[in-house]
Specification:
The protein has ten helices and five strands. The chain is of the alpha+beta class. The chain has two domains: 168 residues, 2-Layer Sandwich (Beta-Lactamase); 59 residues, Winged helix-like DNA-binding domain superfamily/Winged helix DNA-binding domain (Arc Repressor Mutant, subunit A), CATH 1.10.10. It is elongated and about 70 Å long.
Length: 238
C-alpha cells in the first residue's frame, strides 16, 4: 500500500511528464495496471479543454474521442455531479448507446476498475480512473474495497499537485495584453461591457473585441469561464 512519503512525491515534481510517470507507479503499487487522469478548468468548460493523461490503449483513446463517448459515458457524467467513487459495474450502463460503449470497452479489457471524481477549489472538474490489474490474485470487488482509501488519498494528492503544475505551464503559454488584463479584471469585479467601456474610455465594440480575444486565448466560451481561468492562472485576484 502507499505511505504519505510516497504520495508527497507528487507535490515535489514540476514536470508533467515525470509527474504522470510517478502517478502511474503509485497506481500500479495499488494493483491498477492502467489509469486515466482528466481535468478541465471548470465544470462548464467543454470537455475538449481537459488535460488528459493516460496509458490506456491508444486505439481505444482514439475511438473514444472520435465517437464522442465522453457525452454518453456514465463514468464521466457521474464525475461531474458527484464526489463519490464509482466502482465499474455493468449495471451503470443502461441506454442503448451506453451498452454499445460497454461492449466496445470490453474488447480492450476496460470493464473492472474504479473512478474517483475530482473537483478543485477553483472550479476544476475531472476524474482519476484506475483499471484493475486482472492478473492480480485477489477478487476484484475485494481488491477495490481494500485499496479504495489509498486510491482516494492518491486522487487528492494527484489533483492538488496537477493543478499547480498545469497552472505554471499554462501561465507560460498564455499572454494577455495590458488592456485585456484590465478588461477581465473589471469584468471579474462585476462590471458590464458598457461600464467597462466608460471606465477604460473606449467603445463598447472594443470591449467585445478584447473579450473575444481573451476567450480565444483561454479556449473557453463565456466570460464567466474566462474569469475562472484568469483566476486559476493567477493573472487576476478574485
Amino acid at each position: 500500500m502507499l505511505f504519505f512519503e510516497e504520495l508527497i512525491k507528487l507535490s515535489e515534481i514540476s514536470n508533467l511528464e515525470e509527474w504522470f510517470k510517478t502517478l502511474k507507479q503509485l497506481s500500479e503499487k495499488l494493483g491498477y495496471s492502467q489509469l486515466l487522469f482528466g481535468l478541465k478548468p471548470g465544470l462548464d468548460t467543454h470537455n475538449k479543454s481537459a488535460t488528459i493523461l493516460s496509458n490506456y490503449p491508444e486505439k481505444w483513446r482514439k475511438t473514444y474521442d472520435d465517437k464522442n463517448y465522453a457525452d454518453i459515458d456514465p463514468v464521466v457524467s457521474h464525475s461531474f455531479k458527484s464526489n463519490l467513487p464509482l466502482i465499474w459495474k455493468e449495471e451503470i450502463y443502461t441506454g442503448t448507446r451506453e451498452l454499445e460503449f460497454l461492449e466496445e470497452a470490453s474488447s480492450y479489457d476496460l470493464l473492472q476498475g474504479v473512478t474517483l471524481p475530482m473537483h478543485g477549489s477553483q472550479g476544476q472538474a475531472g476524474m482519476l480512473s484506475l483499471k484493475w490489474d486482472s492478473t492480480h490474485k485477489t477478487d476484484y470487488q475485494e481488491h477495490v474495497q481494500v485499496t479504495l482509501p489509498y486510491a482516494i488519498a492518491l486522487r487528492d494528492f494527484a489533483l492538488e499537485s496537477a493543478i499547480g503544475i498545469l497552472a505554471k505551464e499554462n501561465q507560460s503559454k498564455i499572454h494577455l495584453t495590458k488592456r485585456e488584463l484590465e478588461v477581465i479584471k473589471w469584468s471579474a469585479a462585476g462590471k458590464t461591457t458598457w461600464e467597462i467601456s466608460i471606465i477604460l474610455a473606449c467603445s463598447y465594440a472594443a470591449i467585445d473585441f478584447h473579450f473575444r480575444n481573451i476567450r480565444k486565448k483561454f479556449k473557453v466560451n463565456t466570460r464567466r469561464q474566462a474569469i475562472i481561468k484568469a483566476i486559476q492562472l493567477k493573472l487576476i485576484t478574485p
